[in-house]
Amino acid sequence: MRRWGPRAAAVAAGALPVLAFPAPALWWLAWFGLVPWLILLVRASSAREAAVRAWLGAGGFLFAMHYWLLPNLGPFLVLVVTALGVLWIPWGACVWWLLAGPLTGRRGAAAMLLVPAGWVMIEVARSWSSLGGPWGLLGASQWRMPAMLAPASLGGVWLVSYLIVAANTAVAVAVLSTPAWTRLMAGATAAIILVTGPLWYAAEQWPTGDRTFRVAIVQPGVIHGPAQRFNQEEQMTSRLPAGRFDLVVWGESSVGFDLESRPDLTSRLQALSQRVGSDLLVNVDARDTTGAIRKTSVLVGPQGILGRYEKMRLVPFGEYIPFRRVLEPLTWITRAAPEDRRRGHSLVVMHADGTAFSPLICFESAFPDMSRRVTLDGADFIVFQSSTSSFQGSWAPAQHASLAAVRAVETGRPVVHATLTGTSAVFDARGRRLAWFDTHHRGSVEMAFPLATRTTPFLRYGNWVVVYCATVLTAAAAAALTRAAGRRAQQPRSSAPP
Questions:
Q1: Are residues 364 and 451 located together in one domain of the fold?
Q2: Beta carbons within 10 angstroms of residue 392's beta carbon
Q3: Are both 200 and 277 inside the same structural domain?
Q4: pLDDT of 312-338, one tens digit each?
Q5: Per-residue pLDDT tens over the stretch 184-221
Q6: Nearest to residue 385, comparing CAs of 255, 208, 228, 195?
Q7: How far is the CA of 245 from the CAs of 145, 341, 485, in angstroms?
Q8: In a domain, 175, yes or no
Q9: Which residues, in sequence order, are CB contacts of 3 under 8 Å at separation 6+?
Q10: pLDDT per position as a tens digit, 350-393
Q11: Average of per-residue pLDDT values in the chain
């Protein structure tokens, strides 16, 4: 029974950094909230016990981050977070091996290098869309603080996660070590890491541009029935002042009919575009003429349909079931998708009022590579169309909208997050929040934002942080294996019996 006290504490310690995501005043908790968890790992009696505590702490972290999935997944959510928590097992053992023995400066320095690298590689592994995608990455906790989020323009969200874990590791080393100079070194390292973001924020290139883009987001709220929803959105859009906007955006699943099968709705959208004097970006969630269900962003102008984009990365269990043949029984006990939606195959750049932009749909806002790709393809800003209607009253809508800030800093482009119901937001090219309308808002969100852009190092060099972390861990593993082999070779061989 003595083991279960520290193990329960590990679950709570793993959930602690999650508080940094929703609470504005607790952004700093991510930078120090991992310390109790790290100390619990180091105080374990063995590497095996440390691995168990890492696994349980990861379960606490993941469950706290995704609790709002309970109505959809039910008890299966516990199984999901338990399975994903396995990724932290080698990380926990690594922490114990590095810090549990006599804590020298050399071991502390190695820990500050390897522990954050291991964490980043865990985040990369669980970013596979079939495992849930890059949702709830530790670096995203700094979305409210542009100065602390600024390193994302240098190395993506991965660099912010690396710095946060490195700072936590340095503090843990300072707490656990005995020699004063080791404590001083670790404390100084933590301080340097903490000021990295603000220093980069002050030194990096500012976005340039002298144009302003005017957008209106139509957010009707929860309306049951596709016909009633379309009518409400049409009425709300028709009340917008004519000629004031460059683009009007409807949320995800705003049109519940296939426009090819319903030319009357296409005509109504054309007339609506003509009336307000701007193009409309709507989102179709319907079964098409082939019988497949697709989610498609459709740009409509007075002259007709101007562009389409089909969603490429679907929500696991919400829009498809990975390994459906095996996991089909989940539909009996959860709200998992009874039928897989069809995937798109390519990203698209559209134009509104002569300005290039790219639409991405819902879950796709979590993927750094997609936003980076459309920016390199020429998008001057990015539009995320979302709904989150299944999770009203939970943290999910705000958590989803916060990802737009991270993508804005990474790409150096303004980002519009438009929801059918939930939280709509607009961020400028430095990740500063320009608009934020929560789940209680119904109506139109009107915003003019500067089309200032910049070419960030993350755009140029991509996931170099991931390559660095993989290289460091591989080199450390090779060195450890070589050292162990050398020790075995030096051991005297026992003589053969007579």
A1: yes
A2: 15
A3: no
A4: 998 877 777 776 776 767 666 666 667
A5: 999 999 999 999 999 999 999 888 888 899 999 999 88
A6: 255
A7: 29, 33, 69
A8: yes
A9: 49
A10: 999 999 999 999 989 999 999 999 999 999 999 999 987 767 77
A11: 90
**Measuring CA to CA, which residue among 404, 429, 381, 470 is closest to residue 140?**
404
How far, in Å, CA of 151 to CA of 120, rounded?
15
CA dist 315 and 366 (Å) reads: 11
Q: What integer is the mean pLDDT of 220-247?
A: 91
User: Is residue 189 domain-shared with residue 236, that is, in the same domain?
Assistant: no
pLDDT classification of 341: cutoffs 50, 70, 90: confident
The residues with which 437 forms a beta bridge, in sequence order, are: 424
The CATH number assigned to the domain holding 274 equals 3.60.110.10
Can you tell me which residue has the tokens 């109504």?
Answer: 268
Closest residue by Cα to residue 260 from 221, 222, 329, 308: 308
Structure tokens at 370: 């997609």
**Domain range for 252:** 212-312+347-459
Residue 1: the pLDDT is: 47
Asked if the structure places residue 10 within a domain, the reply is yes
- In three-state secondary structure terms, 297 is strand
Residue partners of 204: CB distance under 8 A and separation at least 6: 150, 153, 154, 454, 456
| Rounded alpha-carbon distances, angstroms, from residue 352 to 213, 261, 269, 274, 345 | 10, 25, 15, 14, 23
Q: For residues 450 and 208, is the Cβ–Cβ distance under 8 A?
A: no
Compute the Cα dihedral for 276, 281, 285, 286 and give only its sign. Answer: positive
* Same domain, residue pair 277 and 357: yes
Burial class of residue 345 in the structure, from the number of CB atoms within 10 Å of its CB (0-12 exposed, 13-18 middle, 19+ buried): exposed
- Decide if pLDDT at 430 tops 70: yes
Residue that the structure tokens 């007075």 belong to? 302
How far apart are the C-alpha atoms of 397 and 120, rounded to whole Å? 25
Query: Residue 406: what pLDDT?
Result: 97
To which H or E segment does residue 279 belong? strand 279-287
Task: Quick: pLDDT tens for 117-159.
Answer: 999 999 999 998 877 789 999 999 999 999 999 999 999 999 9
Distances (CA, A) of 80 to 60, 120, 130, 378: 12, 20, 12, 38
Encoding tokens for residue 91?
Answer: 């990380």
Segment holding 384, helix H or strand E = strand 381-386
**How many domains is the chain partitioned into structurally?**
2
Q: What is the pLDDT of residue 333?
A: 63
Count of all residues that appear for the chain in the document: 498
Residue 245 has pLDDT above 80, yes or no: yes
CA distances (Å), origin 117, targets 121, 169, 341: 6, 11, 36
